[in-house]
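User: I'm new to structure prediction. If I give you an amino acid sequence, what do you actually give back? Let's try with this one:
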Amino acid sequence: MQNRQAITILAALAQESRLAVYRLLIEHAPEGLAASAIAEKLGLPNATLSFHLKELSHAGLVSSRQSGRFIYYAPVIEAMDELVGYLTEHCCSQSAGKCSTATARCAPGKRPATAARRRSTSA
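Assistant: Good question. You get back a string of structure tokens that encode the predicted 3D arrangement of the chain. For your 123 residues, that looks like this:
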């Protein structure tokens, strides 16, 4: 992951409604929810929700699919895995083994594989 991509994702999530949308979609992964269900559950007007879904989609955090007359949105789990991997890649390297409990899970072998690492190991 490049700096620019991480900044785009973080910027997309740095807004209360978009964060709420993403968290709701994570709860309903991998199928996702229809836009109308998202709007209803979060109390967002359709135009506002459309704007936020566009921002999340542009950041690569959500995907959409049409089924009949409904558009369903689902989280792109791999994008978040890559972001977390990017943010924690060197989390313990400078601490001389004094990682906090929160960062201990990023120790080698404990961090979830990112899509890039999965691609490189499967080749």
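You can read the tokens as a compact description of the fold. Here is one thing that stands out. The mean pLDDT is 83.
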